[in-house]
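2 proteins. here.
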Amino acid sequence: MCHINTMPSVNMRQLRDTRRLKAWLRAGKTVELRERDRLIAKIVPQKPEKGTPVQYPDFGARRKKIFGDRIIPAVELLIRERGRY
């Protein structure tokens, strides 16, 4: 009986291509890490935690607290901040 390995496999050099690795992990696939065709590790995707919604800060309220109701044009803001850095 022939077992076909459907698990993605990368070697140490291919591990630098993080886009492909992240795509596999986001798709829920376990990735084998090999050195000279010898399995040395498995990278297993993290399962998302359920029931803990992400709490984002209220950026609109923060902006209003800092600037009030005034609108500062981007050019004016850049000129003001130019000497700061």
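next one coming up
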Amino acid sequence: MTTENDRLDAILNELAPVLLPPADYPPAYIVRDTPRDELMERIRRNAGEVGIDLTEAHYEVIRFVLDFYAHCCAADQPGYTDFLAYWRQVDSQRQEDKAAGDGKEVCRFGRLSAREATNAYRVYRVLLKAFADKGGKRYLYRLFPYGPVFTIHLLARLPRLRHDVDPHFGTAY
């Protein structure tokens, strides 16, 4: 366990400039405004600096998160009519079969307002639904032991999300 803690400390020390309090500026805006090649190069470079070997499985999750921010985080309200509709689409882990309709396959797992997308738990729930067929939580944490959302944000140097890590409770999304 000490080796893993030392490795996490090394990663956090390397990426120290990113370890700021969660920003109020939604990461969806940054992802939309930054060329994808630049984001991917930043992720590759930062992963190399901290010694994380990224595989195609890692890149699949990373691309999903970036696509989700770019296409499924509306600037205003995502259009849910009531809380139950919101729960079925975002929080429920049961995936109802439905077509994306707008050509954006990634949005079939839910839409968030740009403000909601600053909460790590909401983004994490969408990730769980998207990768449920590959093992969900277990699959994501095998790829990103320190939390998929937290790690992707660190590597891409996106603002931290609210409640992304709680060392006192032992959670990292």
